[in-house]
Amino acid sequence: MNFKLNPFTGALDIVSQDGNGGGGGDDYKSLRTVVLQSDINNGKLTLSVVPELPTATLVMIKGAPSQYYGDDFVVNGNELIFLAGNDSDGLANILSVGDKITILYK
User: Fold this and answer.
1) What's 10-64 look like in SS3?
2) CA-CA to 9 of 20 to 30 Å: which in 3, 42, 66, 73?
3) Low-confidence ranges of the chain (pLDDT < 70)
4) Bridge-partner residues for 12, per DSSP?
5) What is the Cα–Cα distance from 56 to 43, expressed in whole angstroms?
6) pLDDT for res 18
7) Contact 33, 45 (CB under 8 A)
């Protein structure tokens, strides 16, 4: 399943994998995982590849508010690093063991 950010709604649209969905090269890679204590201790998750455009990385946590690059997390190489955030709401402060997290990156 591929996603494309809709510039009009700000939502993610599902794009078919056969190219008929209008993806046009905006295909995202995805990582779906459950947060472990070791992830929290390390303050990061490892992505399968180095994103070409780190600032286009999207992080979604089931039942949590939106997460923002530079406020809540950053990407350095193939590592998604948890930040504390300005209002104590960054990933470093809100993640708990067992949280379901989806990361989309280019």
Assistant:
1) CCEEEECCCCCCCCCCCCCEEEEEECCHHHHHHCEEECCCCCCCHHHCEEEECCC
2) 73
3) 1-26, 85-88
4) 5
5) 20
6) 42
7) yes
